[in-house]
Amino acid sequence: MVYFHQFAESLGNTVDAKDPLTFNHSQEVAQISQVMARAMALSESTVDLIHLAGHLHDIGKIGIPDAILKKQGRLNREEWAWIKRHPEMGAKIVRPVTSFGVKGGVAT
Ligand SMILES: [Fe+2]
Predict the structure, then answer these.
(1) Against a cut of 0.70, is the pTM above it?
(2) Distance CA 97, CA 90 (A)
(3) What is the CATH number of the domain that holds 81?
(4) What is the pLDDT of residue 85?
(5) Could you list which residues have their CB under 5 Å from ion ligand 1?
(6) What's the pLDDT tens digit per position in 52-68?
């Protein structure tokens, strides 16, 4: 689990490195999600899973063109459509990770 966590953290850092405005965002989401999951008295294995998901929650941004991701100012309709697709792209990226309990895009 330690290596998996380190790998998830590295992937989150990769996404954050694409956009200087969101530097450390994935790390912060992972830590805040972990605190919230513990406050909800979830099992430690679920807390760990939520923490990992925090690191990876924006992984789909890798599929968004840099010109859109780094654009200053308002996005047009087509650019905004790209941004809205990042959760779907992220789900496709992490789908092979069976530890997430996701089968065919639906949590089991
Ligand atoms: Fe972490």
Answers:
(1) yes
(2) 12
(3) 1.10.3210.10
(4) 96
(5) 9, 30
(6) 999 999 999 999 999 99
